Every structure is written in C-alpha cells, then in structure tokens.
Amino acid sequence: MQRKLTITVDAAVYDGLYRTVGPRRISQFIEDLVKPHVLDEDIFAAYAEMASDEAREAEAEEWSDALILDVSDEAR
Fold it and tell me: So where are the chain's domains?
C-alpha cells in the first residue's frame, strides 16, 4: 500500500531533482534512497535474492570480465 507524503525542499533541490531524475520519477527516486535507511531488511536474504536472479548474475559476470580485460592491457 502506498501513502502520500508532502515534503518541503529548497527550490534549487527541487529543480535539480526535476532536471536529473525527471518529472513523475521523483517519488520513486526518493523512496529508493530512503528505503535502506528505514526498513530492517535482512541483508543476507537480499543478497540471496539478487544471486538467484540468473540474468542479473550473468550481466554482472560479463561486466566484471570486461573490467579484467581492460586492466590486462594497461602498461606496467
């Protein structure tokens, strides 16, 4: 269930959010930032859930393998 919350921020902060995040996305952006600080979630369960996502894991492995290749080309 969602609840409506009215907050007050400086005009410059609002303008920055509007420019950076975009209209109609500010609430989700703020929720994503705040959520880990206010909910008592079991971090191990969250990691297990992420690890069970095979597509995410494959993408992460591909990304990390690409980083290793970048480092191997650096001058010593």
Answer: 1-39, 43-72
Task: Please state the length of the chain.
Answer: 76
Is residue 17 a contact partner of residue 29, using CB atoms and an 8 Å limit?
yes
CA-nearest of 45, 44, 20 to 33 is: 20
Q: What is the DSSP string of 10-38?
A: -HHHHHHHHHHT-TT-HHHHHHHHHHHHH
pLDDT in tens, 20-54: 999 999 999 999 999 888 877 777 788 888 889 99
CA–CA gap between residue 55 and residue 35 (Å, rounded): 24
Report CA-CA distances (Å) from 3 to 15, 18, 25, 30, 60. Answer: 24, 21, 16, 14, 34
